[in-house]
Amino acid sequence: MGIQENIGHSVAERAKFREMKEGTKEDWALIAGEYRAFAKGLPDRVLDHLKLLDGDFGGFPVCRLEHSLQTATRAHRDGRGEQYVVMALLHDIGDTLGSYNHPEVAASIIKPFVTEEIHWICQNHGAFQGYYYFHFLGMDQNARDQFKDNPHYEACRQFCEKYDQAAFDPDYDSEPLEFFEPMVRRVMERPLVSAYAKALDE
Ligand SMILES: [Fe+2]
Ligand SMILES: [Fe+2]
User: In this protein, which residues make up the domain named HD (predicted)?
Assistant: First the structure.
């Protein structure tokens, strides 16, 4: 595509307003169409971003991508469902952009597609994972106790005990990312509940 053609295409496909208050139904029909197409690409963008963790060791015995694959593989082999396994795969995807609050990044990404409990596990796994190392860094090993009355406490404790803290073995035969791709696409195909779900209806 030539530059002129590209510019012409872009101008033709853009809304006319300079402030949102000038927007029209036609503008928003155009934007909604673009949004539907863009939303369909979410699994690809998430998988691409997950690959940024490849080779990123940060001193750990395995890189962050291998840790993610291993966490997901352990959950899958333990009989967990697809929403759970996808959460396990993505639980540390926020390490790149949320270096001080990574669990919240992953939790926000998966929130429209998973149960409240699976979202909660993802959002709060940092404090539960800390049970295995906070005390070595002068922090409170029992930080997770702040959630002891929460109905999801045990589920989050199990996630960390069985899968997350256990997923640093360089000799474990983790499934490759391709194994999980269809699951990511199925889970992220459509939001369970979202103010934007209606906009996806054609
Ligand atoms: Fe984490
Ligand atoms: Fe982790």
Answer: 64-134
Q: Is residue 193 part of a domain?
A: no
Which pLDDT tens digit goes with each residue over 119-152? Answer: 999 999 999 999 999 999 999 999 999 999 999 9
Residue 102 tokens read as 């990574």
Instruction: Copy the structure tokens of residue 48.
Output: 């691409």
pTM of the model: 0.91
Tell which wins on pLDDT, 11 or 131: 131
Answer whether residue 99 is part of any domain.
Answer: yes
Ligand 1 centroid – CA 78 distance (Å): 20
Ion ligand 2 neighbours (CB, 5 A) are: 92, 164
- Closest to 174 in 3D by CA, of 8, 20, 63, 14: 63
Same domain, 150 and 179: yes
